[in-house]
Write a structure and sequence with these properties.
CATH topology of the largest domain in chain A: Chorismate lyase
Number of helices of chain A: 7
CATH superfamily of the largest domain in chain A: Chorismate lyase-like
Largest interface: A-B, 45 and 45 residues
Structural class of chain A: alpha+beta
Helix content of chain A: 25-40%
Number of strands of chain A: 10
Shape of chain A: elongated
Oligomer: homodimer
Largest sheet of chain A: 6 strands, antiparallel
Order of helices and strands of chain A: HHHEEEHEHEEHEHEEE
Number of domains of chain A: 2
Strand order of the largest sheet of chain A: 4-5-6-9-8-7
Strand content of chain A: 25-35%
CATH architecture of the largest domain in chain A: 3-Layer(aba) Sandwich
Chain lengths: 246, 246
DNA sequence: CCAATGTCCTGGTATATACCAAGGGAAAAC
DNA sequence: GTTTTCCCTTGGTATATACCAGGACATTGG
């Protein structure tokens, strides 16, 4: 390895071979879901390469979504991806409940805040109007899947915070306040995680994730809730059925 | 820099500061779209850090989507993100044409092939049935945006390849074959690029992108085309309007 | 029995160095 | 004037090394 210039080598970078090897081990099931990958030092020794090169390969595999790192404990094989049909429901929770995904919600923070210009426009309220804001972490089978920040128009949901927020808020709003969701505007993009999100999701800070934003409208056509979810990219798949118009 | 243990430093990693600095330069407009970022070596010198640390910061900024690298020419500031409304149209081209995005299509390959099990199921044909397959690269203002692989049921579109494929194929199918799109099933996920895609999009191989798959149905409710697009993650945003059912 | 301590493992950060390959442009050759 | 050649800059790969911080776990001390 690492001769001055073998040139006989297929020009395939060393770290690529390691990536391919790890990918195979995972895809083939030799390494089952949530099992530990070899450590950086172990891979370096196994392949006769430096730790930094092994690390490069592991980071690539991690970024690919095949593995996730868990702080300084090690890297583990990612679980299966799950699908979220955005054209049928506006609540992931309702969707997840129907299956057997062990869904758990952790409340990270809640506060009463005021609408800034962007939120005011989205929720059709005046700038400065009171909004409930709460941040929650959603776990599937004990593993972080996405972080959601939600803003609800305060005057529509008096004493919202007196209720348990570790449940579907759209269901809560429907049951307790008679505000069923009728439709939603959704947008999806890929972006980098900020520090807080990365910490909650157990990812390196500048990893990419998928952001899903949605404005939820009631039967009267007026928006009452705005949510912003940031997903671990390897976990989510969003599906929809579109009817062609105009 | 790099004393044994200052501990006075705010514990903020060096590369983070560089990232923040670059982000500011880009966000503030000091570095306009498509302008060159400082090179790895230049940043190393400027901040008094090693090239590898500077590189780390640049890769993070790149991954964030704020910059793109162009082979060994350097890194440049990314252009604005654009939005693709998946609930209204099934053709990105038609969407893009309406705006002033300089859209160009490059034909990468075309062939007549046979449906494998997965494609047969998606297109409601028998396994082994003839399909047209073509791969195209879509550029916006001269910059690669996504690669699309499309499969069309062959017997519905005789001599498809005699037409110009550097245009919207849904429009082509509608105009030349009387097969307007009626609806589509779409799914979106984040995944890593393979070598070919990365090469076409000008990205490192293991980079993440957004994959959009769609089956297009005609007025008779039968599928006639399947497409798989892989987007540069920082360029795309997908929006939809959902009506809550069930 | 339980708490505190210490050791070993892990990944995270940072540096210094080396060479390669490809793009770009200036200089030299035609 | 045009083509060719060469050099410089750029990113890409790879290594060796160093220290930090946090989790896991066994050992020790009360």
């Amino acid at each position: 390895m690492s001769e001055n210039n073998p040139a006989a080598e297929n020009k395939v970078p060393v770290f690529q071979k390691v990536i391919d090897h790890l990918r195979d081990e995972i895809r083939s099931g030799k390494l089952p879901e949530h099992s530990a990958l070899p450590s950086e030092r172990a891979i370096g020794k196994q392949f006769g390469i430096s730790r930094m090169t092994a690390r490069r390969a592991l980071l690539a595999v991690e970024q690919e979504g095949l593995a996730y790192s868990s702080g300084r404990r090690g890297r583990f094989v990612s679980p299966q991806r799950l699908t979220y049909d955005i054209s049928k429901t506006v609540s992931f929770f309702a969707h997840a409940e129907s299956g057997e995904l062990g869904l758990k919600i952790e409340l990270i923070s809640k506060q009463l805040t005021q609408a800034d210009a962007a939120l005011a426009a989205k929720l059709a309220v005046a700038e400065g109007d009171a909004l409930y804001k709460y941040t929650r972490l959603f776990l599937l089978k004990g593993h972080p899947a996405f972080v959601e920040e939600e803003f609800a128009v305060a005057h529509l949901f008096p004493d919202l915070f007196s209720h348990d927020l570790q449940q579907s808020t759209t269901l809560l709003m429907e049951r307790e306040y008679g505000m069923p969701p009728h439709s939603g505007d959704i947008s999806i993009r890929m972006r980098a995680l900020n520090e807080e999100e990365a910490g909650l999701l157990g990812l390196p800070t500048y990893n990419a994730g998928i952001e899903l934003e949605q404005v939820i409208y009631g039967s009267d056509g007026k928006p009452f809730c705005f949510g912003r979810q940031i997903w671990r990219g390897e976990l989510a798949e969003f599906s929809a059925h579109a009817i062609v118009t105009g």
